Amino acid sequence: MPERLPLPGPSFLRERELRAGDRTYLLGMARPTDGPDGWWLAILWVADGESVIPFRDLAPDAGPPPEPPLARLGPAVSGALSGLILEDESRLQLRLATLAPPDDPTRPWRTALVIRAAFRFEPARAAAMRPNELAETVLAAFRTSIEALHRP
Predict the structure, then answer these.
(1) Which DSSP helix (H) or strand (E) runs through 69?
(2) Is residue 5 a contact partner of residue 86, using CB atoms and an 8 Å limit?
(3) At 10, which helix (H) or strand (E)?
(4) Which tens digits make up the pLDDT trace of 5-48?
(5) For residues 15-49, b (16+ Cβ closer than 10 Å) or e, as one string?
(6) Residue 20: helix, strand or coil by DSSP?
(7) DSSP code, position 126
(8) How many other C-beta atoms can be found within 10 angstroms of the C-beta atom of residue 122?
(9) H or E, element range at 77
(10) Is 51 helix (H, G, I), strand (E, B) or coil?
(11) Between the CA of residue 131 and those of 34, 73, 113, 134, what are the distances in Å?
């Protein structure tokens, strides 16, 4: 699988800018769907305008850390959405996965930064938000979490 992928399509929401060092990227989100058992599903990506960038482009300047990028991204996303994600049997109902695995599992930062995200939200909090507002909240949390990847 190549490190870069074509854009998944137009973003459901207005794309958000992300600055990392001297580069500017765009964050997008496919139209979210409601999955089985109350899961909210979306595809999120970071692009340079032409294609989806690899995680490596947002690694700290000193180089990618040894752990996979999702090991840093998962806690950051759950923290940014604190109180909105449902907790069931002491487990946050959040799942993140890359769209495509890296060619070399020992180099997990060399894969396209396209994420499949699944959430189950606290019903009372989610019911108080419009669908677009919920999607905006998730995209903002994704942006905050991606910015954290670039920091050491």
Answers:
(1) helix 69-80
(2) no
(3) none
(4) 888 889 999 999 998 888 899 999 999 999 989 999 999 999 99
(5) bbebebeeeebbbbbbebeeeeeebbbbbbbbbee
(6) strand
(7) H
(8) 14
(9) helix 69-80
(10) strand
(11) 11, 23, 24, 5
Q: Is the pTM of this model over 0.90?
A: yes
Question: pLDDT tens, 64-96?
Answer: 988 999 999 999 999 999 999 999 999 999 999
Say which amino acid occupies 112: A
Question: 47 has which bridge partners?
Answer: 26, 52
Any idea of the CA torsion for 89, 76, 98, 146, to the nearest 10 degrees? 160
CB 55 within 8 A of CB 109: yes
C-alpha 135/C-alpha 22 separation (Å) is 28
Is residue 3 predicted with pLDDT exceeding 80?
Answer: no
Place of tokens 């759950």: 78
């459901």: which residue's tokens?
12
CB atoms within 10 A of CB 3: 20
Using CA atoms, how far residue 10 sits from 6, 67, 84, 109, in Å, is: 11, 31, 26, 25
**Residue carrying structure tokens 């999955």:** 35
Residues 91-97: contacts with CB under 8 Å, at least 24 apart: 93/39, 93/119, 93/120, 93/121, 94/118, 94/119, 94/120, 95/119, 96/70, 97/70
